[in-house]
Every structure is written in C-alpha cells, then in structure tokens.
Specification:
mainly alpha
Length: 202
Amino acid sequence: MSFLESLVLSITMAADAMCVGASDGIKEYNIKITKCLVIALAFGFAQFLMPLIGYFVGFAIYEYIKVAIPWIAFSVLLLLGVKSIWEGIKKFKERKKQKEDEEKVGETIIKVKPFEIFVQSIATSIDALSVGFSLVGVLNVISEAIIVFVIIGIVTFLLTFLTTFFGKQIGKYVEKYAPFISGLIFVALAIKFLVDAIKLII
C-alpha cells in the first residue's frame, strides 16, 4: 500500500472521530486546548490500536481465509461506505430537530467528561477493527501494517484536534459532509478490492 493510499484511508477512517470531535467542540464552546489534545490523543490511539488488533486476528488465521481476503475486504468496505452514507442522512434529519430544540431551550454550558471521551474513542474506532482484519491480504508484512496504522492514528489525532478546537467554526461543515465523503471513498476502495478479487478468478 502506497503512502497516498494510506493517507486516503486514514482520512476516511478519521471521519467519525472528526464529527464527534467537532460535536464536542460545539457543545463545550469554551473548550481548552489541553482538553482538545486529550480528545485527539484518545481518538488517535484508538484508531491506531483497533485496526492493529483486527489485523493480528486476521493474520493468525490468514492461511485459512487467504482466498477470500479480497472478497472480505470488498464486503467490509462496502458495508462501511453504505453505513457512513446512511448515518449522514440520519444526522441531517436529526440536526434540524436539534437546532429547533436548542432555540427553544437556549444555550447552556456543557462539559465533555473523561468517561464520555473514552466511550466516544471506542465507538468511533469499532469500524477500524474490521478494516484492520480486511487488510491482512494487502499488508503482507507486519512492519508495513504497523506503519499504516501509525499513519491512521496520527492523521486521526491531527484532524480530530483541529475539528474539536475549531468546532464552532468548522463543526457544522464537518458534520454535514464528512459522512458522505468518507462513505463514497469507502465504496470506491471496495470497488478496487472487488476488481482485485475478480482478477484472481480470471
């Protein structure tokens, strides 16, 4: 996997963390830079660790599933793409209702608690577990896999920090468009793996 492919995958996988980070930044409008760093570190580490776990699980049973690896990668990425787009549509509907509710209640100060940050980091990285599993046939060398997952973690950290810190300014754009963009990229990557799978048959 090239650096460019790793970067595109990293940005795509970071989309959920960016959305949640932006949401935290919007909720806690006077959020401190130290908390932004904590949130970004939690999300970045989770996005590094989860695919690594998924990869080693897949690596352990690689000999039994190597023929099906391209099909597994295609299925996982396609499902993630459709899921991301569907969630984007749901959030679009929810956003309108939430805005109406906020106008009725008025602005209140909300603090993002440490346990909430932990739960968010796990929730946004669950998909990364399956992505790591599906990349076993693509990243044949463990050292290469670790480098890719480190890149994913770093990109997630940087993008989450920015969206959390500038939540008020850019959060609305991230929450609107990120799920659709990441969904389309996941679908595009899925098609790439489908082509690879078909080539193996032909």
